[in-house]
Amino acid sequence: MVKTALTKLIPYSLPAAFLAMTLTGCAGSPELSAPGISLTVQEGGGPQQVTSGVQLLVLLTVLSLAPAILILATSFTRIVIVLSMIRNAIGTPTIPPNQVVIGLSMLLTFFIMAPVYEQVDQQAIQPYLNQEIDQETALTLAVDPVREFMFRQTREKDIQLFLELSETELPQTLEDIPTSALFPAFVISELRTAFTMGFLVYIPFLVIDLVVSSILLSMGMMMLPPSLVSLPFKILLFVMVDGWYLITRSLTLSFLQ
Question: Residue 76, Cβ neighbours under 10 Å: how many?
Fold first, then answer.
């Protein structure tokens, strides 16, 4: 019942998947286990109980940081940056509200990452819940689809940078590239792509601001803020070209190519 409830709670969420794997492993034996951590519960008092308490504190700390780490390993970073830059380009930094921007970013992230989550579920979660593989093998199989996704979005230049900084020998295959070098390379690649897309979004709205400023200056209306006049025109332009459709389509296709 516990396994079924956990797997149906959030079907397309990596944090829930890893949490389900950890909890089911802990429920099956009196020895609480996690990747690289073994928590043994002893009935008698002694130093081992203190050690177990410290290990439990470390485990809870790792679990609290896991959502932030997993967000960086998905398409969320690029999407939320581009949507935030659109608000600033239009001139409405609080419309749509942050809750709407983050919510839309999460929905698009779930949609884009759905094939990856499916692979993780089929290759790692279900075999582990069926006791066909152990926890270490399940974690290894779960990371492979995520690494494949990150490789498609990461520049070779960024990977080479972190390999050189870590003084790692040049790998012969993609499997030889450590995740510790791939992860930060993926993040800075996503930041570069997001700012590039944001710059392209800014251009048409910048042109409108320049035209309105020139017209107001030629009319001698220097006391009237140009942003006050250009805002309706920028909103009208965004609505007429069906901006949300174009932005959503561009963001989704940028990950599927």
Answer: 20
